[in-house]
């Protein structure tokens, strides 16, 4: 099976810490399974399509600070401008203030809460390591538990404040400032990241997105913002107190991350709709308001889809309101850009279900 060029030029680093050595950092066996599942779907030639040897996995004893640094430096040496790079971390985050300086950290296996600067990966260092990666399409996924409701940790140093697990939202904002960087995190700063079954909720749904649930554009690819919008809808359906967050400098950046699963291709049935559903896809992507109008008109010919027409018309109304604000004020807010993208993704998912057949609706 031939692969699109962008996934002949792809790299991934997948980290799941699992068992921590510090007695006050809870072991997280789900994070090891998170990393294994994500690495598996990316490297599967019938799913993610990453070539053999391009997905590096660090789990358990391998998830040390030294190995994390080395793997990130290796990415910087290997990556070229046209590459797609995915970096995933599942484990504890931590933050503290020492001598008036607030810092956030990703915690490797040997992280010591009494000496985070020497035993964990500081935000500034992580940002610098990311900056050294020359690829113009970099996705960073962080499934780090916040300890809202869990114990705080007293730092041993007398000039240090309380250490808290979890990462501040500014951490993700800072990481996203370089062009081509998209950051998706499992939950907001004051929320927990939950486990569902044997895996983290966020990562289990991330894997489903890559297995085809977020492949909605008919181009045999899974795109980064479509992954986020899938997660932002599906995670709260399972756990209302967990909300994934997105940080990106340019909200129009929607590069492909992986191949759509092979089994998804060739299964879409062409439509005999007024314009043909295939043509509607392009219109939804490039002219969402007119695309929504055309999709609504097509669904109106199907009495059995009356409920779907209401959903389509609601999303079209959202798009119209955002367009009116842009016409009035000359620009729209980032929140409105996210809402616009989410409305388009919702319409594309309806279209995909129509193409697959009534059983998908």
Structure overview:
The chain has two domains: 258 residues, Rossmann fold; 93 residues, no CATH class. With 361 residues, the chain is of the alpha/beta class. 42% of the residues lie in helices and 19% in strands. The chain is built from twelve helices and 14 strands. It starts with a helix and ends in a 5-residue tail after the last helix. The protein is globular and about 65 Å long.
Name of the CATH first level of the largest domain: Alpha Beta
Unreliable spans are: 146-162, 265-275
Residue share in β-strands: 15-25%
At CATH level 2, the architecture of the largest domain is: 3-Layer(aba) Sandwich
**How do the helices and strands follow one another from N- to C-terminus?**
HEHEHEEHEHEEEHEEEHEHEEHHHH
- Count the DSSP helices: 12
Helix content bin: 40-55%
What structural class do the secondary elements suggest? alpha/beta
Shape annotation: globular
What is the CATH T-level topology of the largest domain?
Rossmann fold
Tally of DSSP β-strands: 14
- Biggest sheet descriptor: 10 strands, mixed
Mean pLDDT: 82
What Rg do the Cα atoms give? 21 Å
How many domains in all? 2
Q: Termini distance?
A: 30 Å
Topology overview:
Layout: H1 5-8, E1 10-16, H2 29-43, E2 55-59, H3 65-78, E3 84-98, E4 101-106, H4 116-119, E5 121-122, H5 123-131, E6 137-145, E7 153-154, E8 162-165, H6 169-175, E9 181-185, E10 195-196, E11 199-200, H7 201-213, E12 221-223, H8 224-238, E13 245-248, E14 256-259, H9 277-286, H10 288-300, H11 306-329, H12 334-356
């Amino acid at each position: 099976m031939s692969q699109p060029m962008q996934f002949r030029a792809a790299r991934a680093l997948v980290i799941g810490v699992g068992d921590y050595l510090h007695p006050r950092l809870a072991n997280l066996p789900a994070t090891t399974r998170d990393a294994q599942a994500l690495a598996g779907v990316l490297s599967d030639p019938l799913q993610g399509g990453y070539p053999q040897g391009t997905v590096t996995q660090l789990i358990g004893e391998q998830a040390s600070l030294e190995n994390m640094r080395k793997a990130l430096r290796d990415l910087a040496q290997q990556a070229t401008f046209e590459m797609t790079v995915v970096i995933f971390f599942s484990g504890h985050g931590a933050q503290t203030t020492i001598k008036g300086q607030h810092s956030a950290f990703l915690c490797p296996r040997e992280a010591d809460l009494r000496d985070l600067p020497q035993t964990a990966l500081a935000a500034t260092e992580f940002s610098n390591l990311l900056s050294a990666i020359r690829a113009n399409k970099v996705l960073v996924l962080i499934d780090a538990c916040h300890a809202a409701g869990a114990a705080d940790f007293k730092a041993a140093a007398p000039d240090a404040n309380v250490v808290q697990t979890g990462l501040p939202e500014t951490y993700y904002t800072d990481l996203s400032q370089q062009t081509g960087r998209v950051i998706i995190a499992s939950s907001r700063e004051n929320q927990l990241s939950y486990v569902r079954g044997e895996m983290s909720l966020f990562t289990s749904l991330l894997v489903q997105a890559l297995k085809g649930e977020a492949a909605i554009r008919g181009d045999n690819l899974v795109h980064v913002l479509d992954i986020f919008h899938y997660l932002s809808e599906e995670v709260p359906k399972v756990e209302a107190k967990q909300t994934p967050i997105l940080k990106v400098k340019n909200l129009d950046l929607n590069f492909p991350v992986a191949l759509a699963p092979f089994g998804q291709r060739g299964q879409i049935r062409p439509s005999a709709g007024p314009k043909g559903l295939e043509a509607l896809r392009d219109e939804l992507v490039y002219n969402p308001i007119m695309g929504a109008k055309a999709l609504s008109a097509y669904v109106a010919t199907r009495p059995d889809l009356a409920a779907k027409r209401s959903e389509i018309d609601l999303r079209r109304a959202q798009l119209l309101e955002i367009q009116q604000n842009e016409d009035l004020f000359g620009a729209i807010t980032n929140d409105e850009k996210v809402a616009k993208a989410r409305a388009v993704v919702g319409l594309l998912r309806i279209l995909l279900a129509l193409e697959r057949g009534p059983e998908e609706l």
